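Dear support,

I submitted the protein below through the web form. The confirmation email said the job was done, but the results page showed an empty box. After a refresh the structure appeared. I'm attaching both so you can tell me whether what I see now is the final result or a partial one.
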Amino acid sequence: MGKGGAISESVLKKILLSYTYVAIWIFLSFTVIVYNKYILDKKLYNWPFPISLTMIHMSFCATLAFTIIKVFKLVEPVSMSKELYLSSVVPIGALYSLSLWLSNSAYIYLSVSFIQMLKALMPVAVYSIGVLFKKEGFKGDTMLNMLSISFGVAIAAYGEAKFDPWGVILQLGAVAFEATRLVMIQILLTSKGIQLNPITSLYYVAPCCLVFLFIPWIFVEYPILRDTSSFHFDFVIFGTNSLCAFALNLAVFLLVGKTSALTMNVAGVVKDWLLIAFSWSVIKDTVTPINLFGYGLAFLGVAYYNHSKLQALKTKEAQKKAAQADEEEGKLLEQRDGEGIGEKRDQA
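What the results page shows now:
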């Protein structure tokens, strides 16, 4: 096969790998969400203890991360001082524990489909908090886009057949804490040149989450669990559920590392539609036409936001390449001028 054929094969292989990473992430994210709903829902497995479930996940992930880093030494730990850990990792761990606690709690009160619709507010929350902390510049057209997403979610909420105010408050709180966590990662870690992959992230953050979750667990869930003599820990259910949660972290690393964060955002939209369809067809959650119309508006807003981010990245990349080309051209001209001066001196 000729050179052109070899290039085509290489491009095809990259495309197939990218789609494979996307499919793995969608499958695992889908599985974790549905599995958590199954465990927490009172009509299904009936174990409505979101703090306990989150603590099981964090214990499992922290143990595996410790084993991979310290025992098998497959991943290098990040060099981090005690002061940096307390000032940067601990606040992120606190935000992450709150986000997981509230998001898992929402599954007790809301349908899977409606939760995905509410999650469409994530770009709104990230942008707003980014502007608040001066990590994003305020732009009128972007804010108008954010308002269109919010309007779409509001219509979807209006059309929700099983609207639960407490469940909505929990999910919106989870979105707010998760958005703050993402912005704080940029401020506290990325700006200091610290890059954590999912293994090192779990190694440092999961123990923090456990400590923060232990405080509300003692007062909220432990007394109920202590008095529930009928409960027996199901290692198969909770073990496979925790394994899926750990695998999802690895899938995020693969997807973002091999493609881009934008690809994950686009894949997330596909996953949300699949979850809505699954929730309606399999779990038999009620999805109304107003639900779909509102989420459709929010979806268009999110799609436009992702498109704008992609265009901005392309422009930035083009400017970077142009600057590099100008710099190289300038060096060549200097080199030629130097050679010309040298020749004149030799002739003299």
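Response: this is the final, complete result; the empty box was a page-load delay. The CA atoms of residues 81 and 87 lie 10 Å apart.
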